[in-house]
Amino acid sequence: MVHPASTNLSPSIVKSCSVKTFGFLILPNFTTIGLASAVETLRMANLAARTPLFRSVLIAADDAPVVASNGMRVLPDYSIANAPELDTLLVVGANPIDRGRSSRPLIDWLRKLARQHLPLGGICTGSYLLAKAELLKGYRCTIHWEDLPTLQAHFPGIVISSQLFELDRDRYTCSGGVAAMDMMLQLVAREPGGQGIAAKAAELLLCDRVRGERERQRVPLRTLLGSAQPKLSQVVAIMEANLEEPLGLEELASLNEVTVRQLERLFHKYLQRTPSQYYLELRLSRARELLLRSDVQVREVALACGFSSPAHFSKSYSRFFGLSPLGERRQASLH
Questions:
Q1: Alpha-carbon Rg for the chain in angstroms
Q2: For 253, which of 122, 149, 151, 263 is 20 to 30 Å away at the CA?
Q3: Residue range 221-333, CATH number
C-alpha cells in the first residue's frame, strides 16, 4: 500500500537499494501508452528518490525497430540474444493480439527466464504471450477487458480476473493504459523505503489517487455477454438507472416482460449471481466512487445508493470490500 510521500527520505535506505533493471519486451503493434506509463513511473521514482533506483531497457525479438500500434517506430536497446541481466521482465503486448506471430525463440527465451526464477509480467495483452508460453498456470492474471474473452477462450485453465492489475508472487500483469502506472507504483512501493518514494512519484505524475489491486476494470456488459442477451442487458441498464431507489425483482421482471424465475436463470447463467447480488454490487461500486472521488458525507452516500440507513450501508460495504466506508476513505487519504 502506498503511503504519503516523506520529504525526508532516509539516505541509508535509498543507498542500500541497488539499481534494479526492468526489461520491457516490446512486440510488434505494442501499445505506447502502456509502455510509457510504466517507464515514466520508474523515471519519476528515480527523481523522487534523488538517486537512480531503477533502469528501464527495451528488448525486442531482434535488433530491428519495432512498430507500435500508433505507427511509431521504436529502436530497442537489446535483442533477446544479447539482453542484459534483468531483475524483472514485462511483456508489452500487441493491440490487437496477433495469435500467429509469436515466434518459438521468444517463447523459449521467456521459459528460460522463468526457469531462472525471474519475475515476469505483462502489460495490456502481454498476458497472452505469457499464457502461450505456459507461464501463467497457477497464477492469477489480468488483461485489457477487450481481450478477456480471447484469453479465456484460448487458455481456459488459467485464472483470469477483471482487476486493473494482478501481483501474484513473481507474476505481474496489468490491463494496460494508465493501469501500468498503478501497477508500477505498487511495485516501487514494495522496495525498501519505497512507499514514500512511490507516493512522491505519484505526485510528480499528477496522479491524484493510486489505485490498488482490488479495483476492477470497467468491463462493459456487452463485452461479457455479446449481443445474444438483449433482455439481460436491458435489465442491467434499468438497474444502473435506478440505484437511489432500487426496484424489486417483480418490477424488473415486469418491465422486461419476463418472469422472476426467468430473470434469475439469466443472471445465474451469464453473470453467476442472483439479480439481487448483482444489483447490490452495482450500488456498492457506485458508493465507492462517491467515497473516493467526492467529499459527500457517508450518510448521503448511503441514501444516494439506495440504503435505508448508514448502519446497513456500512455492514454491506464492509462485507463486500473488506473495509468500512470510513476506513476506505481514511485509507485513500493516505495515498
A1: 22
A2: 149
A3: 1.10.10.60
What length is written for the chain? Answer: 335
Handedness of CA 65, 67, 73, 78 (dihedral sign): negative
**Quick one: 219 exposed, middle or buried, by C-beta within 10 A (0-12, 13-18, 19+)?**
middle
CATH-assigned architecture of domain 11-204: 3-Layer(aba) Sandwich (3.40)
Cell triple for residue 60?
525486442
Residues 20, 88 contacting (CB under 8 angstroms): yes
Pick from 27, 23, 52, 60: which is nearest to 38 by CA?
23
Distance CA 109, CA 81 (A): 9
Cα separation, 54 vs 42, whole angstroms: 6
Give a three-class secondary structure readout of 51-64.
Answer: CCCEEEEEEECCCC
End-to-end, the C-alpha distance of the chain in Å comes to: 8
**Orientation angle between helical segments 230-241 and 260-271, nearest 10 degrees:** 100
Region 96-122 average pLDDT: 89
| Whether the predicted pLDDT of 55 surpasses 60 | yes
How high is the pLDDT of residue 6? 35
Q: What is the pLDDT of residue 116?
A: 97
Where exactly does CATH 1.10.10.60 map onto the chain? 221-333
C-alpha grid cell, residue 254: 415486469
Per-residue pLDDT, 233: 83
